Amino acid sequence: MKLKAPPGTEDILPAQAGLWQRLEATAREVFARWGYGEIRTPVLEFTSLFVRSIGEATDVVEKEMYVIGEGDDSLALRPEATASVVRAYLQANLHKVRAFQKFYYIGPMFRHERPQAGRRRQFHQMGIEAIGSLDPLLDAEVVTVACELFGAFGLSGFRLRLNSIGTPTSRRGYRELIRERLGRQAEALCPDCRRRLERNVFRILDCKRPACVEITRNLPSILDHLPEDEREHFRRVCSALRSAGVEFEEDPYLVRGFDYYTATVFEITHGALGAQDALCGGGRYDNLVADLGGPPLGAVGFAIGVERVLMALRESGQAEERPRLDVFVATVGGDVRPAAFTHLVALRRAGLRAEADYEGRSLKAQMRSANKLGARFVLIVGEDEARQGVFRLRNMATAEEKVLPDIQAVIAEATTDRGSNRCA
Ligand code: HAM
């Protein structure tokens, strides 16, 4: 029997969950403010949905999906959520209510990759999808939301790169051109890229191996080979971003790993992350709604990898989440414990974060726990206090002690100056 979480998965224990909750709450707030409504789709979908949308010759579909069963009924654990959101949008006929709709999601995704730092088999994404418009200002909005979100997380030092990759039709000429150019230097490419020459030549632009990078950097830019209307779309996206004060770099070699992308694509990376440095990826997918049986509607979105955001926050020293407690109820002697329990309940019912000792420890050990938990006050319940019917409350920041007449006075004292430490 294996008593470990499977490789590439991990438990989020209470000590880390606070930070997860903070990121999720921040994301929900930002997404709502920008007009995105939450959508929750199943983690299981028919495998064919991903094959059709992400593309047969992609790494994810070829080798990274967790598939259950075979044939038409086979199911897959979702490796991403864009396809699911479009599927749900069409299945619920939302496009008939109003074509333009904006969604956000937060949840686990699954890819059977080789686990390493920043690469998990179960990981979490927070993402948005805006469906039903071809407006370049919408691309700019989506990119801006991603940057705003990192700002709201308190994360700086990230890098945004942007490109336009056209449509399968409009990039055909460029594809043939680079296939021909790269084909001449096939010997110098890595084995993976040699395979990609036939199957998925654009992925070669994305290869990180120095030999391949050297070759691809001498290729002409895709932007010079797209039709004028597509170039104009990209110029408008860039100009809107500039006027919104969003810093970015144009990167003519940026490509994405899924077939559904068209036109604008972008990626946000962070230098603190090492090899798996992408925090966020996204772009337009103007053919996907129609490819999945809907009307021809443009769409654009992104997804952020939560584990990688946490890593970047940790690396830049911004992940500290000091636990905060309002009151620790410390007891001296076993006889007062039932009375202390009544106080504990009253404090919690009043909306305070309160804790007490359940392990029969000494007062000194209880004070240590109070400190560790970041308690602002300690209510000391001893036999004297119990006999006299008074409440001794110690302010942990000033070491000042007050003797108060009743629990209401304790609640009033502990409620003042709580700042953002509310739980009610
Ligand atoms: P993606 O680039 O495959 O795009 O994933 C988005 C983000 O998820 C990545 O930038 C990374 O932070 C995180 N991520 C991906 N794989 C892993 C992994 N194995 N372990 C940890 N984190 C990972 C998408 O998924 C698209 N659906 C994004 C999108 C939405 N495009 C348009 N709309």
The first-to-last residue Cα distance is 43 Å
Query: In percent, how helical is the residue content?
Result: 25-40%
Strand residue content: 15-25%
Total tally of structural domains: 2
Radius of gyration: 28 Å
Commentary on this structure:
- It is a single chain.
- This protein is 38% helix and 21% strand.
- It has 424 residues and is α+β, with helices and mostly antiparallel strands.
- The chain folds into 2 domains: 14-171 and 226-315, Bira Bifunctional Protein, Domain 2 (BirA Bifunctional Protein, domain 2), CATH 3.30.930.10; 327-415, Anticodon-binding domain (Rossmann fold, 3-Layer(aba) Sandwich), CATH 3.40.50.800.
- Strands 1-5-6-11-10-9-7-8 form an 8-stranded mixed sheet, with helices on both faces.
- The longest helix has 20 residues, at 14-33.
- The model is unreliable at 420-424 (pLDDT under 50).
- The structure holds histidyl-adenosine monophosphate.
- Histidyl-adenosine monophosphate binds at residues 80, 82, 111, 113, 118-120, 123, 125, 127, 129, 257, 278-283, 285, 301-303, 305, 307-308.
- Residues 80, 82, 111, 113, 118-120, 123, 125, 127, 129, 257, 278-283, 285, 301-303, 305, 307-308 line the site of histidyl-adenosine monophosphate (HAM).
